[in-house]
Design goal:
This protein is mainly alpha-helical and about 625 residues long. It is built from 32 helices and six strands. Among the domains are: about 130 residues, Alpha Horseshoe (Serine Threonine Protein Phosphatase 5, Tetratricopeptide repeat); about 100 residues, Serine Threonine Protein Phosphatase 5, Tetratricopeptide repeat, CATH 1.25.40; about 130 residues, no CATH class. A six-stranded mixed β-sheet has the order 2-1-3-4-5-6, covered by helices on one side. Helix 7 packs antiparallel against helix 8 and helix 31 packs parallel to helix 32. The longest helix has 17 residues. The protein binds one DNA strand of 10 nucleotides through helix 5, helix 7, helix 9, helix 11 and helix 13.
DNA sequence: TTAGGGTTAG
């Protein structure tokens, strides 16, 4: 009943009660209703649901509580034992307002009423949700005193409480001494270890558990994804299929997230088909993850189709899609979508604004970016986080406003991180500002001395300005700091087999043919004006050697391999661990033109889609 | 009337 009945009290259905999930009436509404029903002569018990009463119990003043108890007695006491009413309230409050559930439990104890296993279970749930370890321990003691230690259900709740409070010694003690364990017991513990990032123990438990449910598999798959081990997640998913266990919505979400991380489009597509056949696409979270998977696998158009086809969208759906357009250099689409989002009445959150600011910085939309930054604070009351500051510094410094960017960093209320200084450094490179580059690197070296990327950029700035001695000094600095260059790798997946290419390595069985094909391409590229840009090579060697190093960059090898092993006209998709270097960027533009192929490269920041000699980033990256 | 797994930024 609740709200509809409250607005039209005389139409109350005598035996219709709301479930505890529906929103309870407020105390004042309830009092109003109470008065109304008394006048109309309708018995109170037929109109007041337990969850309504529960909402009253949440009121901490003694008068309201007394009123709630009188309602209890008035409505139910002739037919139902009072403890069930307490339990119903505890149940409702443990989800809606756990601190009130704890308060109610203390009142129950104070009233000298003996709790049963249900009361304890609801109270432990409230302890979990409020991380009240000491109260949880008190309930544990009570459980032992009352002899409830044989109830698996209750002990699982207890175990869960200890896990949520990260009291793993207590959790293990409960687990070890449980007289009976069921699959839920194991799942709780496995999930906790995945949350703590201890995947080895989670896996061990998974291996030895006597019986597994879909949730056991899913918990471990999701754990691998959360711990940044998507390959293991996919492997386990395949094991799960082989074991004949049917993935459900949650499993699909976890597996799709792994595909997104890996750029594993083939499996992602298969999961999409499976989800469709099971009717999972009605589930918003499945669709959200599906959108993310398609975006991160380079298929922004398909992602948009999924998005457009959704009947219900959450802030996550909108944010994912806006961020996706931004990542693919589609700034206008991102901004248009934001307008639609506002029209639809969904309130943007801080992630939405990260996507929007990304879109602006990738497109050089200075004024819009500033506007969004102000709007998120003033119109939406959001507090900017480090990511937002990073986007703003990126936006300003790319636009050439390096002084303003620097000033912005100095005024930031949060400590700038490597992303923020890195953005200033990037701007300094584009605008050939040595002073600002040096300022940025000063902080970057302190924050992250082992990251070689920054040195490369600084050296490029020097080399650009003709300061070759300074460039050499950077190389010395790198050596002195013990900085090793992160090997660049690129992967391409063909017929479900992922081929990895590491810069300079020649491990792939088709290496000879790849080099041969590259030489042919190089000839054609040079005819079209390609000049190798060896400034990106930070090694002491002569020009010819530098060019040789350049020609063995992993994304070039992967693209050539792709050209050789995929049908003409098909899109080539590459994943790269670092950012695309400027020489490869120029080369891939030409290759897309010469071979009439679309080449989509996912680098660590964004997507580059090369087609007909141009890139979707419009060379602004 | 009680317990366990999920999505967007990086």
């Amino acid at each position: 009943m609740s709200s509809s009945a409250l607005s039209l009290p005389l139409t109350v259905q005598p035996h219709h009660r709301s479930s505890s999930a529906s929103s309870p009436a407020s105390p004042s509404q309830l009092k109003q209703l109470h008065a109304h029903l008394l006048k109309a002569g309708i018995p109170l018990s037929s109109a007041v649901s337990l969850s309504d009463v529960a909402s009253l119990c949440g009121v901490s003043d003694a008068a309201s509580f007394a009123y709630a108890r009188s309602l209890f007695r008035h409505c139910y006491s002739s037919t139902t034992p009072e403890l069930i009413l307490w339990n119903s309230c505890l149940n409702a409050l443990s989800s809606s307002s756990p601190s009130d559930a704890l308060l109610l439990f203390s009142r129950l104890r104070f009233a000298d009423i003996l709790p049963d296993t249900f009361s304890c279970s609801f109270t432990l749930k409230a302890c979990s949700r409020t991380s009240s370890l000491s109260l949880g321990k008190a309930v544990h003691a009570l459980i032992e005193k009352l002899g409830f230690q044989v109830d698996v259900f209750l002990l699982n709740t207890l175990l869960h409480m200890y896990c949520r409070c990260e009291a793993m010694i207590d959790a293990r003690r409960v687990f070890e001494t449980m007289p009976v364990r069921d699959v839920v017991t194991w799942n709780i513990l496995i999930t906790q270890y995945t949350k703590l990032g201890v995947m080895e123990i989670a896996r061990e438990l998974f291996e030895v558990m006597p019986e597994r449910s879909v949730r056991s598999w899913t918990a471990l798959i999701a754990g691998y994804v959360q711990c940044g081990q998507p390959k293991e997640a996919i492997q386990l998913f395949q094991e799960m299929e082989n074991a004949g266990c049917q993935p459900n919505e949650v499993t699909v979400v976890a597996a799709l997230a792994a595909c997104a991380d890996l750029g594993a489009l083939d499996l992602g597509e298969r999961l999409c088909k499976y989800a469709k056949s099971c009717g999972f696409l009605k589930n918003v979270r499945v669709c959200n993850t599906l959108i993310d998977m398609y975006i991160k696998c380079g298929c922004v158009d398909i992602a948009r189709n999924v998005f457009d086809g959704m009947t219900e969208r959450t802030v996550v759906s909108w944010s994912a899609m806006i961020g996706g357009h931004a990542m693919h250099g589609q700034g206008e689409e991102a901004l248009e979508l934001f307008t639609k989002m506002e029209e639809s009445g969904i309130r943007p959150n801080s992630v939405t604004f990260v996507g929007l600011l990304h879109a602006c910085s990738h497109m050089g939309l200075l004024d819009e970016g500033r506007r969004f930054f102000t709007s998120m604070i003033e119109d939406y009351g959001l507090v900017p986080e480090i990511e937002h500051y990073g986007c703003m510094v990126d936006l300003l410094s790319r636009a050439g406003l390096l002084e303003e960017a620097h000033e912005f960093i100095r005024k930031m209320p949060v400590e700038p991180n490597g992303v923020v200084w890195g953005a200033l450094l990037g701007g300094a490179r584009v605008h050939k500002d040595i002073k600002m580059g040096e300022e940025a690197i000063k902080h970057l070296v302190k924050l992250d001395p082992s990251n070689d990327g920054y040195y490369v950029v600084l050296s490029n700035i020097y080399a650009d300005a003709g300061h070759f001695d300074a460039a050499a000094q950077v190389r010395r600095l790198m050596r002195d700091q013990g900085v090793k260059k992160t090997p660049g790798w690129s992967t391409i997946t063909i017929n479900s087999v992922t081929h990895e290419f590491v810069a300079g390595e020649s491990k792939h069985p088709q290496t000879e043919e790849i080099y041969k094909k590259w030489d042919e391409l190089l000839h054609e590229m040079k005819l079209r004006g390609y000049v190798p840009d060896s400034s990106v090579v930070l090694l002491d060697m002569d020009e010819a050697e530098k060019e040789h190093v350049l020609y063995r960059h992993s994304e070039k090898l992967a693209v050539v391999f792709g050209l050789m092993n995929t049908p003409p006209g098909s899109t080539i998709r590459i994943m790269k661990n670092l950012r695309v270097c400027s020489d490869c960027h120029a080369a891939l533009k030409l290759i897309s033109e010469i071979t009439d192929r679309q080449i989509v490269v996912r680098d660590r920041n964004r997507f580059h889609s090369f087609k007909n000699g141009t890139c979707s980033c419009r060379d602004y990256w």
